[in-house]
Amino acid sequence: MEPARGMDFQVVVLAGGFSKSLVPLVSKEVPKALLPVANRPVLSYVLNLLEQNNVTDLIVVVEGETAALSASSWISKTYIDRLHVEVAAVPEDVGTAGALRAIDHRLTAKDILVVSGDLVCDVPPGAVAAAHRRHDAVVTALLCSAPVSGPSDSGSSGAKDKAKKPGRYNIIALDPTKQFLLHIAAGAEVEKDIRVQKSILRAVSQMEIRSDLMDAHMYAFKRSVLQDVLNQKETFQSLRRDVLPYLVRSQLRSELMSNGVQSDENGNSKDAMQNSKILPSQLLANESTPSFHELYALGPDGSASITRKTHKCCVYIANKSNYCARLNSIQAFSDINRDVVGVANHLSGYSFSAQNNIIHPSAVLGSKTTVGPQCVLGDGSQMGDKCSVKKSVIGRHCRIGSNVKVVSSVIMDHVTIGDGCSIQGSVICSNVQLQERVILKDCQVGAGFVVTAGSEYKAESLAKKERP
Amino acid sequence: MEPRRVPRTVSDPKVRRVGFFAPPDRSQSGPPDPTSSSPPVSQISPSGNSLSPVMIPPPRNLSSDMSRHFPPAPISPIRGARGASDSSVPVGSYNPSEFISPTATADFSPGRSRKGNSAEFASSLPTGGIGMVTQNNVPASGLTTVSTVRMPKAVTEKERLAMGEVQRDQQAGDLKPLKEKMTKAERRALQEAQRAAKAAAKSEGSKTQAAASGANAVNANPVKAPKVTPSKKDSSSVAASEKRDGDRQPDKDRKKDVPHPRMQFDDENRVEKAKKRSVMKQTEARSRVELFRHLPQYEHGTRLPDLESRFFQLDPIHPAVYKVGVRYLAGDISGGNARCIAMLQAFQESIRDYSTPPEKSLVRDLTTKINGYVSFLIECRPLSISMGNAIRFLKTRINKLALNLSESEAKASILSDIDHFINEKIILADKVIVKHAVTKIRDGDVLLTYGSSSAVEMILLHAHELGKQFRVVIVDSRPKLEGQALLRRLVGQGISCTYTHINAVSYVMHEVTRVLLAASSVLSNGTVYSRVGTASVAMVAHQFRIPVLICCEAYKFHERVQLDSICSNELGDPDAIARVSGRTEINYLDGWTNSDNLQLLNLIYDATPSDYVSMIITDYGMIPPTTATNAEQDAPRCRCPSSRERRQEVRDIDLPPRPATDAEQNAPRRRCPSSRERRQEVRDIDLPPHRDYYDSNRSPSPRTRDYHKQ
Q1: Maximum Cα interatomic distance, chain A, rounded to a whole number of Å
Q2: Which family is this sequence assigned to (chain B) (predicted)?
Q3: Of A256, B2, B104, B474, which residue is 20 to 30 A from A271 by alpha carbon distance?
Q4: Quick check: pTM over 0.80?
Q5: What ipTM does the predicted assembly reach?
Q6: Least CB-CB distance to A133: which of B326, B422, B428?
């Protein structure tokens, strides 16, 4: 199959590396992309979504060689014969913009769809691409309604205290038709006030500022423009923080059009008679619904005496019924795990039992052990007697003793839990050993950690000494 | 004359479903046909009457086809010697003089061959269009090759019985009077044919060396030759392209081509079928307005998101075409010219990226591809008539490509053809229209226009540039309010304007001296098919005795006849009229759209009867609406002999007279009225005295019927 043909779109998945915000959870062995969500690496949600939408050629960019190795081995094992995936390793900490810069030479299609690898959603990526094409935009961002639980921008030590604060993901300004992006700022970065450009406001005349939307980190870029920006602005690190706001800011005084959009449109018509060629485009422009960009470009009196260069930044706002979340904090990790087996269980790809849970046939349950709804119990796991599991995900080959309570927690693979433990709202990574009568509440336990018998922790992050 | 309907229907199924019965159409039986040399009517047997003696001659190599359809009968005494089957008859072998002299065919019994044909037609009708085109040729080929057959009476009789009732029913009672008419028509047809043959022979001879190789090319294709002529440049490839024409089209394409545009959406079976092959998932609207049930109507909210979300699944659709489709659907592009240009440019782009898959021929594969694109676009929004004409043009060009062209040459040729179409049929046409129309604008005029039309806008701007002093009244209407954009541009240029809504048109009409309107299409009975509201404006203007000028490029003309705006129309988003933009407090209909008792009707087009139209300004000049068919080169291919009289009328309205001929001289001539009324007229007034007038003007008349067959 020919890559980048069809719709002339290339898909790049930015899978990240060892994200610092997820520190006790990620480790050398488990990069962020492979963190299990309902016992499946988070990356698989994006790949499955793309696969469902007939996108079979894609580039996965992973930060760091080792992470790339483990990611690519997992991908080739899982998606062999189904997807044609190129895994590209880029240096760590180059940021999302840097990652794209590094694979610059591989980008050939007319437009690029950039998807974050930590996205768990069911919004068809085609919709973003289509909106992008329809408006001939330079960038189109997917916005979805922000989940009601806590914010994820702070990103330090997890769900400590801010879980109940009202979340502010992004401050986003839209035009009245809700198609164009006029302003975007990360909610956490906004101190007191936001500054909106007067020129944009004047051109649009009406602006809608919303804080209930979240930038889902799925962007469609016009390739020529993206490459221009990345090359010209070498300091740009992040797509979300630098490139997107830059494009939005400069949409009415575009500097990149000299070789970007305009030439794309007119380049193919040079052979035709020049002055007669102006006419069809003018005809087209007159009879199509103008966006404020075009009106602005025409100038105040409607005459095209000075054409101002503009470009369009579009948004696609996902339906409220769609699920969309990003795994970019520990809080988000627990939330997504909860949702994928709960409200958004169509994403998990499992078929749920009548009790609304999944218990692998090879799992062994002791007597009087109950597994409630919205739970997953991986294959080969064993549980002793009188245990109770509620709203939790338990990985593969775990050995859980008797009288253990697990509530709203995530337990990864190969975890050993002694008798009488109580685990609530916690994340326990692979190969952790909990001895008898441990009580954990809202904790994260890093991989391979051993919690001594009888200890009790609340809202702490436990990991081996190697933590930075 | 009833029988004529048969070939008519057969050859162009699109017309078949027009809401009322369109009687025999001489445009089809094209007088220039050589085959019209067929017998004097007196010799046609009663049922033979059912045969239109005037038919389309066969593509040359159709003989095999023909033999398939009715092998045994047409062995003529003359030809019989040569071979038992017609297929063995060398295609171009008959003598042109044979059909130039009517007597040669005296004994021909058309009844027989026609019967065979019509029977087949009857049986194949329900199955749709595949066989139609070929059948159409069949009787013709039969006719030409069998021209001297003396049919055993018994056979005819027997066949007649076998032929079933269908036909006889159709023949109704009006056989007698029709017969009379036909005589006249026939005589004329005969002359036409001779002339056509002469012209064809001449043109062939002068044009191609290939023709020199014998009578072959000349007499086999007296009509096909002109078909090639419109493109002056490809004379070198005539021979090759002719051969192509004969090739059977992939039947599939035709089938796909045929039923779509005129589908009746209250026919559940067909809707089911269409759904199966559609690209998009379309939810049918639940509450339909009774009169408009047959039109496609979907839940408007659901289509765009569905189409968008399946972006990556629509692999066979070229991105450029997809983009245009989405923009149609979202309403980003509207207006006939803009939509047509956008579509053609998207096709250009897709052709640029096209490469023929191995083991396929470019012509066929590309046609299939284009067909796919077209049906995709239809799903996004029904095609306008102008777009249909453009597509037809494009397909014709593709089919006419010489086989020996390399892929890149072929692509370049198509691309430049499209460029030419855009430039000549749209851009240049608009310029010519502007030139004509500006002569009708005088100082002190108050011009009223409705909605927003590119042509009208150009006229106004040009008149302003010429320094004419006039004022413009822009009448607009909900929900699109397109007039505002026009208003903005005109005021920006310093033209003094009045803006009002259509509710006030009767008031504002007092001061108006001219009404300039645009059309989405002009139909062959002079009906103007245009943005809804146009009819009201024209009617009010008519009442006030104010001339109504319609500006319409010739490529938007269509042979269809339509008397109302019901049988063919388009439905817009009903929500658009339920809501008032910018006024959220007007929400009386919120949540009511699903009520069973409420049906919202948002019509897009209406039909303005020709009575209300004083004049149509096309790129071929200014014509009265009743001769609308003249102006068009592609779609309508007939010319009404009475146009001269009608032209007189135009001068009589208060517009300055102009040399009547310039339009006509440029316009390719075709004669044959296409609606019942006009035909009646033609019959009554008899032929104009100076027939040679037409002769002298008629270039080897390009028969464009092939556009319709493609």
Answers
A1: 86
A2: Belongs to the eIF-2B alpha/beta/delta subunits family.
A3: A256
A4: no
A5: 0.77
A6: B326
